[in-house]
Amino acid sequence: MYTTPQLILKYFYYFISASSSKGHGVHSPFVFDFITGVLNDRNRYYAYSEIERVRNELKENETELAVLDLGAGLSGNRKIKHIAQRSLKPPKYAQLLFRMVNYYQPASVIELGTSLGITTAYLAAANTSRQVYTLEGAPGIAALAQKNFERLRLSNIQQITGNFDDTLAPLLDGIEKAGFVFIDGNHRKEPTLRYFQQLLPYVDDQSILVFDDIHWSAEMEDAWKELIRHPSVTCSIDLFFIGIILCSSDFKEKQHFTIRF
Predict the structure, then answer these.
(1) Three-state SS for 197?
(2) Is the pLDDT of residue 73 over 50?
């Protein structure tokens, strides 16, 4: 993991070198549409305030949970508020994921890494007629996330608890296509690339894959570089804290964008 000063420096370089978020000079119809219709959508959707209220309560919760981090091989007790402060995706990005699902209406939504369920709630609230499958390795965290789903009255979430190495393949075997996937767990190069390879047979022209924390460490940056070099990847969008990948035949040649957000 990069230190805070290293991340600040990297973000500064990204910010000054990235393309404008206005869409000027972007010749890809999909990416221009994404910028204007999704990235720059300033609407306050109905679900935002309710989900953020749950987030704020979690950030003040002093209760301790037994936490097992399968990726790091660590276990111990942690306060819920510390998990919330460290692990939850900021509203800016969680709400972007909401807008993506709301705009593109994918047939299925998969999340690797439920955490406390805030991002999951955004994914589910964006289209309550579609099932969201969310995978979490830590049973204690998964149980709390389930309570949050119930509080938010979200019944279109199927939570699967266990190691991704054991749970992802059976899930994929039970669905036809991976419409929208958010990979937010086990932030290391080898597992990230392995999850991508597992997902590939279930990806089609409409599929959207979102990878979290692509600049979180040198290892994750290497994973991102390898992902966008993959022959199946035809378009990528680097938003610094998340990266978006498409494997669509609509792109006749590889296109890679770094966009300010």
Answers:
(1) helix
(2) no
